[in-house]
Amino acid sequence: MKRLTNKHIVLGVTGSIAAYKSADLVRKLVAAGAEVRVIMTPSATEFITPLTMQAVSGNPVHQALLDEEAEAGMGHIQLARWADLVLIAPASADSLSRLVHGRGDTLLGAVCLAASSPLAVAPAMNQAMWKDPATQENVATLKERGLHVLGPAEGEQACGDTGPGRMLEPDDLAREVETLFDTGTLAGVKVMVTAGPTQEAIDPVRFISNRSSGKMGYALAEAAAEAGAEVLLISGPTSLQTPDRVQRVDVRSAEQMYDAVHSDVEGYNIFIGAAAVADYRPIEAKASKIKKDSDTMSLEMGKTEDILASVSALKHRPYMVGFAAETDELEANARKKLEAKRLDIVAANQVGEDAEGKPLGFESDENTLTVFWQGGSEAFPYMSKSQLARALIELIASRYRNEHNIIRPESFG
Ligand SMILES: Cc1cc2nc3c(=O)[nH]c(=O)nc-3n(C[C@H](O)[C@H](O)[C@H](O)COP(=O)(O)O)c2cc1C
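^ thats the input. predicted complex w/ flavin mononucleotide below
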């Protein structure tokens, strides 16, 4: 899988000569796996057409703050929620100044204010504009607020000057963007993740399974790898691609998943049980296909091994994170699981639909989660499974470090 697969990037294009390079930048980001939506300021459209940006991104270009097509006319909020990263490239001197002042009078400004994702800017301007104390102060303020400032590069400029202020080349920018998702909060930590459904054989062609898609577990494995962990993903049957920098072992049944987990779990620091493991399996899988010669049939089922509880019971148990998919009594059931399986964290998942009819849990790309631990909880609102996974991994990383008295290195700021 590519480094930016599943990443949603809002690319803001502003009024700079370097805007012609943004088309190439979009192509580089898309080639690295990202989905890109472009916002153009009115001046940007004087330098490059929205049509070009639409063609390379494969998505309509957003320009107006008022979007009558968007739900409740609030396109800026939708785009801000959708974004895993807002990148402004090229970022004009003017746009940097407006960012510093928190101006929300353009679509791009409003999205930057509303986004909770990281923000990055790639300044592009004449060397004198770059060196001007106002620009330098603006850049320092933005850095202080945690914005990523990518570049600028030095060299010959469109106006004939030479010096700092050129936008980084699209290749270099795309590479920098890839590293922005690497948090380092789990550097040196070994994480085992189980994901997907299990299939319990009835006969050679039939099985009992469940509706788990594996998306949440895969997103967690990916987010843990981005956090710098060494990740082993033990997966039931899914159609998903293995995330970048993740080692994957495929299994089919609950018994195979149990064996795969226990053959490797020693030495792992964190165990995340996101698989929907069958609770029961047919006691006997028939050796040949069952014929349709009676009106009814019954299957005798036996309990499968409880993987979470068994890992939790190990003498040197890893930090344990479990999932609870519940149709009702979310908190009570989740806390029961926390106790019964001696988990450190349980992430509870309402299965079905939320109050507005949005699908939750299995098969959907979005979800909400409420995370419980001894004496605390945190609710994550409705967002994409990859955003949820990153938020959950950050929470796990911080609680894990807390319990193991690991000081967070300054550089992870
Ligand atoms: C031909 C031309 C080229 C320009 N190039 C740049 C540039 O590279 N960087 C910059 O900061 N401003 C540049 N400007 C000025 C910006 O376009 C101007 O400040 C504008 O207000 C930026 O608006 P925006 O940030 O909303 O897109 C240029 C202006 C013109 C007419």
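The pocket of flavin mononucleotide is lined by residues 14-18, 41, 43-44, 92-95, 124-125, 129 (CB under 6 Å).
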